[in-house]
Write a structure and sequence with these properties.
two-stranded antiparallel ribbon, binds the ligand O=C(O)c1ccccc1NCC(=O)[C@H](O)[C@H](O)COP(=O)(O)O, eight-stranded parallel beta barrel, TIM Barrel, about 190 residues, alpha/beta, 4 helices, single chain, TrpF_fam, disordered N terminus
């Protein structure tokens, strides 16, 4: 471990898969710590480059932004507009959030490690014990909702949590009410 990154529960709460400027405004109003825009065309929440950049511009200076894709290549057209690049492969960039369902080989090289076996599917599965031992900023994602998030935080004491499906009414269509319920539950711990 590098020692330059914090460990333990940081209260970080990210909402992912935003597609509209209004959803960013809601995230800020509700006190979320970061937003994610999905830029892989393999997602049902896909934002093409022009839309993704418009969202990043809307968020800039107001809330940290993550460009989310399965492969690093898929982020190239928009990367310079986002604070952090969240991908499911190890790459040598300074602002990497590696997402994976398996332990990272080089956690010291990461800005964040997302334990995410879901890739936006909304399916919750048991979280392995090794997640507790990953150093640095560990964010847990995958089927979290207003009912299970406090228990996950209590058990794993992660740096943060991430949500998408459970705060939607349809893919990419966030509900302000559901977003409010999720962050209230996450903050209740
Ligand atoms: O959200 C997507 O459609 C997606 C597609 C491909 C790669 C990653 C994707 N989302 C990543 C996220 O950060 C989600 O917030 C995370 O997987 C949790 O999603 P959910 O289980 O729906 O809460």
């Amino acid at each position: 471990m590098s020692g330059r990154r914090p460990t333990g529960s940081g209260g970080f709460v990210k909402v992912c898969g935003l597609t509209q400027e209004q959803q960013i405004d809601w995230a800020i109003e509700l006190g979320y710590d970061a937003i994610g825009v999905v830029v892989t065309p393999r997602s049902k929440r896909y934002c093409p480059p022009e839309r993704a950049v418009a969202l990043a511009d809307h968020a800039r200076g107001r809330i940290p932004t993550f460009a989310v894709a399965l492969a690093h290549e898929e982020t190239r057209a928009v990367a310079e507009h986002f604070d952090t690049i969240q991908v499911y492969e190890m790459v040598d960039i300074p602002n990497l959030a590696l997402a994976s369902g398996t332990p990272p080989e080089h956690p010291e090289a990461l800005d964040y490690f997302f334990y995410d076996a879901s890739t936006g599917s909304g399916v919750f599965a048991d979280i392995p014990e090794w997640v507790k031992d990953v150093p640095g900023r560990v964010v847990i994602a995958g089927g979290l909702d207003e009912y299970n998030v406090a228990g996950v935080i209590k058990t794993f004491a992660p740096y943060g949590v991430d949500v998408s499906s459970s705060v939607e009414t349809a893919p990419g269509i966030k509900s302000r009410e559901k977003m409010a319920a999720f962050i209230a539950a996450a903050r209740s711990h």
